Amino acid sequence: MSTAILGFALFALVVTVVPGPDLLLVLRNTLRGGRRAGAATATGAAIGSLAWAVAAACGLAAALARWDAAFMVVRLAGAAYLLLLGAQALWALRAGSPEQSASPAAGVAPIASRQAFRQGLLSCLLNPKVGVFFVAVVPQFLPEGHSVLALTLLYGLIDAVIAAGWLLLVVLAADRLVEWLRRPRVARALEGTAGGALLTLGTVTAVEAARA
What we know:
Elements: H1 2-17, H2 21-57, H3 60-66, H4 68-95, H5 113-125, H6 128-137, H7 148-176, H8 178-181, H9 184-211
């Protein structure tokens, strides 16, 4: 039992540290709103992951994976949300100017913690691959004679804690570099990079969903 839990925790850690939309949002929002906004984004993403674990435990994620139309709709909604975030980032750069200094990062619009939390949550909830991850991976770490529901929920909690811990470390690291990151040229370059990356992720997700 303990070996299976440890194995899953190590696997989840490896998957978590791979850069994705959540990491991009955390970095972007830390730059825009400081440590509090970054932590709110990380918390939202972790709660979204936990929600997918609950859905997987209840069979919803498995049903989505089998029901092609519903799975495609959720993926397209997630792609649209990533495209929206990316477009908003690039539009903010276009509308701003390097001389602006009213926001935490010159030329970059600030963000409130509540909005940052919502972005992290929706980014994860609109990514059905998170649910499919639990459906595909958890069975590999289920020892015989134990409740599938209970262990799936436990693994979901472990994954959420690992994700939150990693993203909060990213927030702390970014916050320590914040003075450098908030230089007008650096801030705008990072905002543009994040916006472009989010647009790319959204486009790739939409294309994959359309081909499925």
